[in-house]
Amino acid sequence: MSRISQCFEKLKADGQTALISYITAGDPEPWVTVPILHALVDAGADILELGVPFSDPMSDGPVIQKACERALKNNVSIHHVLDMVSQFRERDTITPIVLMGYANPLEVMGYESFAQKAQQAGVDGVLTVDLPPEESAQFLPLMNQHEIDTIFLVAPTTTTKRMAYIAEHAQGFIYYVSIKGVTGSAVLDVTEVEKKTQQLREFTDLPIGVGFGIGDGQSAAAVAKIADAVVVGSTLVRCIEEHAENPEALPVAVAAILAEMRHAINASDMA
């Protein structure tokens, strides 16, 4: 059983909703990424999403786009990201890590080489925005071979037929994109999210994580009532941008935001 499956199984047994945090690797400085990851775990993150910097992050709004730009100015590559995961694993062998990004860096590295090195580093899952299951014939078997979960996105516009197809190939959990648009771009419609996640559950027993549009404790608590995981990204990355000139302060600053969301989710779980 993968670390991701173990994590969700334990949380379900405890009646808790998973909190998944996203940051971009190497933003604003490479050396601070691992301390931020540890701080997020200490603040209540159950699963870590680590963004692989890319020059054209098409699904991301301005906040994460600028984070990618800052990381790329630091020359952070997929190789550096895997080194960060290895460094994180020196202290934490339990918390699942999902790499989130785009196909190009993986294709340049080579899928087989990436799969081998990602497993060695301690990566548990990969979410590649522009690599849907229809185009994953080579990718999926390699990830399976190296015990890495392949996580796919479902959007508000996804048909039930395609939901079934995605569910057939997904592993770890399914990421439901709660808004029509890029990250951090719209107000969350919890009623619509609930309707879509209920449809999705007809096709899968995998946990469903909801992200895009969750920016505070209130929205996190609302999503916790209808999903298995709450994914928080742009709010954390915005905090990193605000403290970019003082990176030493980042672990504490980012952890404070996440801790507030953890508290709200826990309160929702107990209600």
Q: Can you put this structure into words, describing what you see?
A:
The structure is a single chain. The protein has twelve helices and nine strands. It has 271 residues and is an alpha/beta fold. The chain has a single domain (3-270), classed as Alpha-Beta Barrel (TIM Barrel), CATH 3.20.20. It has a nine-stranded parallel beta sheet with strand order 5-4-3-2-1-9-8-7-6. Strand 4, helix 7 and strand 5 (149-150) form a beta-alpha-beta unit. Helix 5 (103-109) packs across helix 6. It starts with a helix and ends with a helix.
Element layout with pairings:
Elements: H1 3-13, E1 18-24, H2 30-43, E2 47-51, H3 62-73, H4 78-89, E3 97-101, H5 103-109, H6 111-121, E4 125-128, H7 139-145, E5 149-150, E6 153-154, H8 160-169, E7 174-177, H9 190-201, E8 208-211, H10 217-224, E9 229-232, H11 234-242, H12 250-270
Parallel strand pairs: 1-2, 1-9, 2-3, 3-4, 4-5, 6-7, 7-8, 8-9
Please provide the count of β strands.
9
- Main beta sheet: strand number and arrangement? 9 strands, parallel
CATH structural fold name = TIM Barrel
CATH class: Alpha Beta
Q: What count of helical segments does DSSP give?
A: 12
Mean pLDDT: 93
Q: What would you call the shape?
A: globular
CATH architecture: Alpha-Beta Barrel
Approximate strand percentage: 5-15%
CATH homologous superfamily assignment: Aldolase class I
Strand order of the largest sheet: 5-4-3-2-1-9-8-7-6
Distance between the termini: 31 Å
Q: Provide the structure class.
A: alpha/beta
